[in-house]
């Protein structure tokens, strides 16, 4: 199978793993607060907010919780950050279809990377440990001190895979992250339905229909 692309880069949460956004939305419904409140707080606080600082490894979970709770309360609705993060962790199960696709891509000769905005977990063993061996490069925001959509973390991922951006396809479930990747020259796929996303990926790299979504 020949391809113009040499690498495929996957976000984790919402792509390879079940979506943390779904866990947050369920928690918001249980609290009876407006849908999207948490994400609006994250977006409005920007790079200096508690969530961004957590994902860059500048805050641990213990320091993050009161800071983020304060930001949410100031925006009009109180939450328990500790409870929300526990919900996210419990909902982050791997998607078997994606795991099979990653293995198929590597067998087919493409380099495969993970590029995730994440944070240090108190869990032992860490939930991501079992995933590392599936990828040729595993890039974490908490380790690099950079987070999507900062262009530097995409470039770092490409360097780790020994490709230039135009040789990579990037899959993510968040439009802002995809926009930054496209600006660097990467092909992008928004993951809403995993089967549809993998079908699009197969077409993008010139593989037969159904070769990644079986």
Features:
single chain, 214 residues, alpha/beta, Rossmann fold, 2 domains, 5-stranded parallel sheet, 5 strands, 46% helix, globular
Structural overview:
With 214 residues, the chain is an alpha/beta fold. The chain contains ten helices and five strands; from the N terminus they run βααααααββααβαβα. It folds into two domains: 7-18 and 93-205, HAD superfamily/HAD-like (Rossmann fold, 3-Layer(aba) Sandwich); 20-90, Putative phosphatase, domain 2 (DNA polymerase, domain 1). A five-stranded parallel sheet has the order 3-2-1-4-5, sandwiched between helices. α1 (20-31) packs across α5.
What is the gist of this entry?
The chain is 46% helix and 11% strand.
- The H-level CATH homologous superfamily of the largest domain, spelled out, is HAD superfamily/HAD-like
Strand order of the largest sheet: 3-2-1-4-5
CATH class of the largest domain: Alpha Beta
Q: Spans with pLDDT under 50 lasting ≥5 residues?
A: none
**CATH architecture type of the largest domain:** 3-Layer(aba) Sandwich
Number of strands: 5
Layout: helices, strands, pairs:
Layout: E1 7-10, H1 20-31, H2 37-45, H3 50-55, H4 61-74, H5 81-90, H6 96-107, E2 111-116, E3 137-140, H7 141-144, H8 151-161, E4 168-172, H9 175-183, E5 187-190, H10 194-205
Parallel strand pairs: 1-2, 1-4, 2-3, 4-5
Helix pairs in contact: 1-5
């Amino acid at each position: 199978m020949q391809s113009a692309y040499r690498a495929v880069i996957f976000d984790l949460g919402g792509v390879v793993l079940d979506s943390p956004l779904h866990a947050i939305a369920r928690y918001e419904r249980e609290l009876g607060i407006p849908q999207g409140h948490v994400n609006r707080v994250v977006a409005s606080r920007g790079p200096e907010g508690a969530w961004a600082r957590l994902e860059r490894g500048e805050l641990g979970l213990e320091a993050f919780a009161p800071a983020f709770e304060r930001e949410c309360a100031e925006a009009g609705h109180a939450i328990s950050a500790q409870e929300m993060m526990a919900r996210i962790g419990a909902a982050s199960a791997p998607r078997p279809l994606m795991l099979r696709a990653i293995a198929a891509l590597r067998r087919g000769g493409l380099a495969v990377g993970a590029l995730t905005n994440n944070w240090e977990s108190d869990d032992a063993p860490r939930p991501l440990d079992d995933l590392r061996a599936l990828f040729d490069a595993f890039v974490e925001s908490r380790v690099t001190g950079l987070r999507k959509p900062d262009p530097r973390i995409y470039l770092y991922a490409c360097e780790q895979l020994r490709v230039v951006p135009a040789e990579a396809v990037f899959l993510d479930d968040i439009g802002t992250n995809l926009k930054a990747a496209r600006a660097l020259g990467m092909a992008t796929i928004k993951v809403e339905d995993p089967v549809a996303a993998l079908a699009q990926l197969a077409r993008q790299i010139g593989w037969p229909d159904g070769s990644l979504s079986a």
